[in-house]
Amino acid sequence: MELRLLRQLNALRSARRAAILITDLAGGPNQLIAEGDVVDGALGEAVTSAFRSGKSVAKEIDRRSLFLNVHLPPMHIVVIGAVHISQVLAQMAVLTGFDIRVIDPRTAFATPERFEGIDLVADWPVDALKERPLDAYTALVAVTHDPAIDDIPIIDALKTGCFYVGALGSRKTHANRLERLRRAGVAEADLARIHAPIGLPIGAANPAEIAIAILAEIVGALRSRALSASKN
Q1: How far is the C-alpha of 128 from the C-alpha of 105, rounded, in Å?
Q2: What is the pLDDT of residues 3-22, one digit of tens each?
């Protein structure tokens, strides 16, 4: 790899931006594409598909043999609320390959014994998220049922473009949530991005089933996500 491209790739990775290094297998020039860059035609379709799948792939495009080497930032799940659902979701998320963090200021819930081996932060989300901010490669899951804990990270997730934002609660609870967020100045287009009631509608009846429904919805959102706009 050319030193110039390596430096560009390392800069993108440091900034938590996705990139694809395209290698011409016939010896032509290599190309680095950041997520959000405009790429037309068949190559653009291949790039979009590769960004969404996260899988590197060889392609024949315009009579060229290309290898698309995909570099995605580690995908985060941030769970607001150290509840029973979170205990199961955290374990399943790790198995699925997600980097997961659980945040809850309620120290009776946020205990190491309940979340062994999980990145657990017993603090208010507004403070915890200052150190590791949300971004486009983060899924936010709000499950405390407490507006004082859930609402601010939900607003933050919508502002920063998290690829998934989900919130626990009945339709009535969510309707009340939407009214609060409207009063806080959240636009209707952003409100429509909230998955609530959270999780795929599989008839989940216990914490483990709800966790399955949430994780499946997150994976679906990840694989169909809108690609981040270019920051160049």
Answers
A1: 10
A2: 889 999 999 999 999 999 99
Token couple for 43: 């190559």
Buried b (16+ CB within 10 A) or exposed e, 167-186: bbbeeeebeebbeebeeeeb
pLDDT digits (tens, 9 = 90+) for 160-186: 999 999 999 999 999 999 999 999 999
Residue written as token pair 């010896």: 27
pTM (global) more than 0.85: yes
Beta sheet of 119-121, edge-to-edge order: 119-121, 99-103, 76-80, 138-142, 164-167, 194-195
Tell me the domains of the chain and their CATH numbers.
3-71 (no CATH), 76-223 (3.40.50.720)
Q: Are 197 and 175 in contact (CB under 8 A)?
A: no
Cα 202 from chain centre: 22
Upper half-sphere CA count for residue 98 (Cβ side, 13 Å)? 24
d(CA 47, CA 186) in angstroms, rounded, equals: 32
197: preceding bond cis by omega (within 30 degrees): yes
Its sign, for the CA torsion 6, 8, 9, 10, is positive
Residue 231 reports pLDDT greater than 70: no
